[in-house]
Design a protein that fits this description.
The chain is mostly beta strands. 1% of the residues lie in helices and 55% in strands.
Length: 376
């Protein structure tokens, strides 16, 4: 369980949106500063150190319990970067719930990381690809919740010097058993819960009107299925998960350029975490830790961490079909403001350890500007 400063607090599952007033305009500064030190020495990828900030001031108009509209600006900067501000992009979002338990999001997407583990979604993407735009669908029942999204990454016009790129994902969690009626309270596991997470992600690049020569029309697919058990004793929770991952290059034969056409991996892991809510459930203090074992066989992922893959990001000639790695992590977060995360990866084949540490400060409370609705 990682603390995720990149997800705006107003989008947190812990927040009760039903308590907000209708026909009301809100403002949120959404600011975060971070230090990320990734000491990667294994041949799969290279490390970096970044001290930076995210600033996403946003205005949100909530019309009623079905519809809200948000607009703002997304800025990201790195200390020492000669660009000063690395990215400036607009935030535009419409959130609509046509019926109970279903929400459609258009524009800037919510839920950074989409609840996926590192083999399918690299944690470092929160720093270099933190903003996603496209279309998103959320739905949930007592025994099932799902998120479907399309992140359009590169749009092309006639003569564009790059290819069209987008990512499609579908993340499901089936809950066949839980000994409490509401398994979603504060996004915490109940005393005994059995889950079956099932995910699919496809990354495509291609297009017909760009000016790129010798283009590769490529589609990479990843899928996962897991058996997960969550338990809790008072404020101490634990999680046992056994996920299985698959990879397949779904491109036509003449466009298959990955070292392996298909592959798979398995990543059993155990997590322990605890904490408590304070200030009427608006803030959370907690800690977490986990350990896991990764075995991969020709596994490749279009958006996953290269630390788990059978290829190198910087050296196209390097591959290792069979991967054996032990992972560990520890995290701590205070009042939804201060967070710390440490990750370690011990490669049994290289007999070497890679590790990364992240410290962040974030603030993203909503402030009411004006309400046109009567008091509820």
């Amino acid at each position: 369980m990682y603390c995720d400063f990149a997800t705006c607090p107003e989008d947190s599952p812990r927040r009760d949106h039903n308590c907000e007033a209708n026909k009301t305009l809100y403002i949120s500064p959404n600011v975060a500063t971070f230090v990320r030190d990734a000491e990667y020495f294994l041949p799969y990828t290279k490390g970096y150190t970044a001290l930076g900030f995210f600033l996403k001031p946003t205005l949100t108009y909530r019309h009623d319990e079905h519809l809200s509209v948000s607009a703002g600006i997304d800025l990201m900067g790195i200390a020492g970067d000669h660009k000063k501000v690395r990215g400036i992009t607009p935030i535009v979002q419409i959130k609509y719930s046509p019926i109970k338990n279903i929400t459609i999001v258009g524009g800037t997407l919510n839920n950074v990381g989409h609840g996926l583990d590192e083999p399918m979604f690299d944690y470092d993407r929160r720093f270099y690809a933190h903003k996603e735009d496209g279309l998103q669908l959320f739905a949930h029942t007592n025994h099932w919740r799902t998120e479907m999204w399309c992140n359009w990454e590169d749009f092309i016009v006639v003569g564009s010097p790059w290819q069209e790129k987008f990512t499609f994902g579908w993340n499901n969690t089936f809950i066949p058993f839980s000994n409490l009626e509401n398994t979603m309270v504060h996004n915490q596991p109940t005393e005994h819960t059995v889950k079956i997470p099932v995910s699919l992600m496809m990354n495509h690049r291609g297009g017909q009107i760009d000016a790129v020569e010798d283009t590769c029309i490529e589609t990479l697919a990843n899928a996962s299925i897991a058996l997960e058990y969550e338990g809790r004793i008072r404020r101490l929770s634990y999680d046992i998960e056994i996920p299985f991952y698959g990879f397949s290059n779904r491109s036509n034969k003449e466009h298959i350029h990955t070292h392996f056409k298909d592959g798979w991996g398995i990543y059993p892991n155990f997590s322990l975490y605890g904490g408590k809510f304070v200030r009427k459930h608006l803030n959370y203090n907690g800690f977490g830790g986990g350990i896991g074992y990764w075995y991969g066989d020709g596994f490749i992922s279009g958006r996953g961490s290269y630390l788990f893959q059978s290829r190198s990001y910087f050296d196209d000639s390097f591959t290792r079909r069979y991967r054996h790695m032990i992972t560990a992590n520890a995290s701590y977060w205070l009042n939804d403001i201060l967070s710390f995360l440490f990750q370690a990866y011990y490669d049994l084949d290289e007999a070497s350890v890679d590790y990364a540490a992240t410290i962040s400060l974030s603030f993203g409370k909503k402030f009411k500007i004006h309400s046109w609705d009567q008091k509820r």
